[in-house]
Amino acid sequence: MKFLKSIILCLVFSSIPITAFAATTTIDNDTNLGSPYYNRPYGYSTPNYTTNGWQYRKAGYNGDSRLLSSGKANRNYNWAIERSYKNVNIQVYLNDTQFTDPRAEYSVMTSNNKYSYTILKKLNQHLAPGGWNTVGNLNVNGALSLELTSSGSGNTGADGIRIVH
């Protein structure tokens, strides 16, 4: 009987995704300024302003997102994380039919003793499944910043991100 219980427990726990046991930090577009988790496009501090072409929208994760219209290439949106993590899985939330950029580039800057910049993934926002999409796995020892760069070939969307650590 003890053996049977052990097998049942193994089957139950083997069907649970590994991220179910990991800690997560979710960062949305309008995190409170007093929070250690904040984000902004370059030069952007007020959530209802248009800066560098990014439009505030009442849609997406937690009821807000940003949209950059097609034809505006190499415009950036940043999410900055002041906490230090190791072995992170970085995910972005995509669930909006207006997000159509076929080559949205996600990159990360880390401060592991010195600053390094790494392109994680070019993601087709139009064909990506709705919900959380992994853009990279990193071994980080310091603060990090996730950057989204538009290709200009479609509407680029910026919404919530999730750090699984």
Main features:
mainly beta; five-stranded antiparallel sheet; four-stranded antiparallel sheet; 46% strand
Provide a short characterization of the protein structure.
The protein is mainly beta and 165 residues long. It has one helix at 2-14, and strands spanning 24-27, 37-41, 54-57, 65-68, 76-85, 88-94, 104-112, 114-123, 131-138, 142-149, 156-158, 161-164.
Topology:
Blueprint (H helix, E strand, L loop, with lengths): L1 H13 L9 E4 L9 E5 L12 E4 L7 E4 L7 E10 L2 E7 L9 E9 L1 E10 L7 E8 L3 E8 L6 E3 L2 E4 L1
Antiparallel strand pairs: 1-12, 2-5, 3-4, 4-11, 5-10, 6-9, 6-12, 7-8, 7-10
Can you walk me through this structure?
This protein is mostly beta strands. The chain has one helix and twelve strands. 8% of the residues lie in helices and 46% in strands. A hairpin with a 7-residue loop joins strand 3 and strand 4. The model is unreliable at 9-16 and 41-49 (pLDDT under 50).
Helix content: under 10%
Placed side by side, the strands forming the largest sheet appear as 2-5-10-7-8
Radius of gyration: 18 Å
Number of helices: 1
